[in-house]
Amino acid sequence: MFRTVALLVAATGLLSACSNSTQLVATWKQPGTAPYPLTHSLAVFMTKDAGMRRMVEEKLAARIPGGVPSYRVIPDSEVTRLDAVREHLREKGFDGAVVMRLVGMTTEVTPTGTDFYGYWGYWGTAYDPVYYTTQQVYSVETTVYSLKDDKLIWMGRSQTVDPKNANKLADFSVNFAVNNMRKDGIIR
Fold this sequence. Notes:
Layout: H1 2-18, E1 21-29, E2 41-45, H2 50-63, E3 67-69, H3 82-92, E4 96-112, H4 116-120, E5 131-146, E6 151-161, H5 166-183
Parallel strand pairs: 2-3, 2-4
Antiparallel strand pairs: 1-6, 4-5, 5-6
């Protein structure tokens, strides 16, 4: 019994150490793109949840040059009206847009247990020393558009494992995307 509890504690500690990690899965940059001089950029989070949209857009706008949350420019009732969106952006003179959206969420199940010899020690018993841990993996896509040229100039996808809540997922995703845009020379 003690061995079972010790293994569960060790597995939980290992899982906690791996939790809340964000990693870059893929990036793409328009060939020949110099650092893009964003001076008045729109920060967008594409979701039907108005509260989530506002939270993420505020965080994103605070991290990009000349960032303005899109909810301040485009009302929720008009986000699906392309003509209205174009008119709002033209009126306000935005030169670029950084758009984030959640593109997937998966649950990963991983078997953990003892090593071969620890497993061997359960010879002849009806006990299964293998444990299964689950973790939620969220994939977020970030794109940067030149609104002057109407073209995509950068795209990145990140994955975050087991964020504690939506606020933490937003923090991890925004920070990770902005840091990688800087690293790739898209923003200064």
